[in-house]
Amino acid sequence: MSEFEDSDAEFVEWFSFFRTQARRFRETKGILVNTIAELEPHALKFLSNGDSDTPPVYSVGPVLHLKNDTDVTQAEILEWLDEQPAGSVVFLCFGSMGGFSEEQAREIATALEGSGHRFLWSLRRASPNVMKELPREFSNLEEILPQGFIDRMKARGKVIGWAPQAAVLEKPAVGGFISHGGWNSTLESLWFGVPTAIWPLYAEQKFNAFEMVEELGLSVEIRKTEMELVTAEEIERGIRVLMEQGSDVRKRVKEISQKCHVALMDGGSSRIALRKFLQDVSDNIA
Predict the structure, then answer these.
(1) Domain ranges of the chain
(2) Which secondary-structure segment (H or E) carries 282?
(3) Positions of E strands within 110-262
(4) Which residue, among 95, 118, 92, has the nearest Cα to 105 in the 3D structure?
(5) What is the Cα–Cα distance from 281 to 23, expressed in whole angstroms?
(6) Membrane-crossing residues (predicted)?
(7) How far is residue 84 from each of residues 66, 103, 128, 261, measured CA to CA in Å?
(8) For residue 201, is pLDDT > 60?
């Protein structure tokens, strides 16, 4: 069987799975959604169209896990961020399943050096089969990154393994986040008011990228497609747009960040939705 036939078979398998799950939604009494009404009003309105066959939807987000238990190395990273100027650092992190080939890692390194910005880069190698083995750290960065890169960049950047993402995004030094666009990462960036450049790698991330970039204008774009080499020029261009101070994207992210916090306050949209959910549960039990 060819590579394309393998890909087609996998697509059919996953499509069948998600179609079955979607059809089962109608069997539920309600659906909790990790978002806020102010972020996705059109989608929530569509799902709550009054159709008796459609279960009620409760937007109760953002639901976030913000507590980080950092080790010594991660604590040093956070201390380094405290020493950097506000809004000066580009943070690159691609989730638990995000990894890159050696060739792609070199392109990213070249872009970071060319951009002139400070950076914190969580880098891991791509897994041959991410469903069986998660990405791991490269054993020797000196061998895979451009010659002399680590020495040249030691004054303005760090290449690390696993990062305490929420703790990093909370730091005032972080001015932009290059992310795979997973929904948890997206909500964390909005919560802390950090604009993102989305680089989707797998799963639903291309849909998230379209929503954040094209529909909501809350992110800039690195590349819409996946599984292709993204050049240093494309990445550097995305970094420069991302880190532009006073941009419309940056302003919109700050505005929605405030709305995320208000949504969880007493009288906020998510608090109201949660109370409605609890009341509906109570009424159904009764």
Answers:
(1) 3-61+264-285, 72-260
(2) helix 269-285
(3) 118-122, 157-160, 174-179, 196-198, 219-221
(4) 92
(5) 22
(6) none
(7) 22, 29, 36, 26
(8) yes
Tokens of 158: 């760090």
Token code pair at residue 275: 């109370």
Query: Buried b vs exposed e over 84-99: b needs ≥16 C-beta within 10 Å?
Result: beeebbbbbbbbebbb
Question: Residues 235-272: pLDDT tens digits?
Answer: 999 999 999 999 999 999 999 999 999 999 999 999 99
Amino acid identity, position 65 = H
Query: Average of pLDDT values for 118-122?
Result: 98
Output the CATH code of domain 72-260.
3.40.50.2000
Kindly list the strands in the beta sheet with 219-221, ordered across the sheet, starting from the edge strand earlier in the chain: 157-160, 118-122, 89-93, 174-179, 196-198, 219-221
- Measure CA of the first residue to CA of the last residue in the chain; give whole Å: 56
CA–CA distance, 143 with 149 (Å, rounded to integer): 10
pTM: 0.90
